[in-house]
């Protein structure tokens, strides 16, 4: 039996279900993977909770359910202790990071992940800011560029449970990739569908917020930036082209009218907030995010309101369409868990180095 001691920064819509899954599936983890995942440090916006013997997840989840910070937990709470201090001061084998995405400076996630990787700690991210603003730097600090360096995984950051990064990078190995198209933001897609059914913009956004899929700042969703973030991550990770946000032409969905939604529907198609990566001369890619009318014959033309999708085209694999149903933040939590298992299977000797 192996024990992996983990830190989690961000205990919100993604972090909470992740802890629930770890708690509820502890027996299955032991039985199937001979693995115990032990939470030794958690941080939210109010501070941290630390226990090297393992925090009581039942008590943690109860506190978060009651909208209390983990820092209020008796005996283990550390009011005011941030994620960075957690990584510096608490010995652990693995960092899980799910703080809010911030496109200004990618903080607090970026410093937390940098510090963890520098200390030799594998990192699993749901947050996109560090990947979007510093992909090449994090790749250089991790196994992404150099085998043997600490693992960096982020499959939950692009499409939740839909295995966009894994399929593109691993399963389409050696393929020369062609046009890639995706509906990668659940919130805007749900909103476009609901508005097509007659809901107002505000009511549609409220539904997305209620199911926990909207960003803490929902302008990232509706203005196309969350989709652009995911396209930047896929371009770096799958297309293997160093890419930053300004390489993407971005138009959000706020300007889409009811008449446009109705017209697309009448023809059997729909309006999608579509991410596209199109190969051009000289190894260049043209990247865009914009509302796009697609017909019913398009592989994503009949995407349901609660679905996301991605179409890869490869010269040797052909066309591959991924569609994931039933969105929800838990899809990203489940993807983080699969990344944890990937890290656990690859690093047979994880070295705790948090106290240096
Ligand atoms: N929701 C989704 O469907 C998906 C989200 N993501 C990404 O995952 C990340 C988390 O999203 P989500 O869970 O929805 O967001 P939430 O707003 O629900 O949760 C954010 C968590 O981070 C905590 N937090 C905020 N600031 C800090 C800080 N400075 N230090 C430590 N913790 C902090 C919050 O604390 P407190 O609890 O005290 O408020 C909360 O626990 C985002 O980067 C998002 O882009 C990725 C895929 C899907
Ligand atoms: N806000 C995002 C959450 C996942 O990345 C979305 O709506 O898709």
Structure, explained:
The chain has helices spanning 15-24, 26-33, 57-65, 83-89, 109-118, 129-141, 164-171, 186-196, 201-210, 219-222, 225-237, 258-266, 329-346, and strands at residues 2-9, 35-44, 47-50, 77-79, 94-97, 123-125, 152-153, 180-183, 248-250, 270-279, 285-294, 308-314, 318-324. With 356 residues, it is an alpha/beta fold. It has 2 domains: 2-153 and 331-346, NAD(P)-binding Rossmann-like Domain (Rossmann fold); 173-325, Dihydrodipicolinate Reductase, domain 2 (2-Layer Sandwich), CATH 3.30.360.10. Strand 10 (270-279) and strand 11 form a beta hairpin. It contains 13 helices and 13 strands. 37% of the residues lie in helices and 21% in strands. The strands form 2 sheets. The chain has a 7-stranded mixed beta sheet with strand order 4-3-2-1-5-6-7, with helices on both faces. The longest helix has 18 residues, at 329-346. The protein binds NADPH dihydro-nicotinamide-adenine-dinucleotide phosphate and ligand LTNE7NMQ. Residues 9-15, 43-46, 69, 82-83, 98-101, 108, 126-128, 156-157, 160, 212-213, 215-216, 329, 332 line the site of NADPH dihydro-nicotinamide-adenine-dinucleotide phosphate.
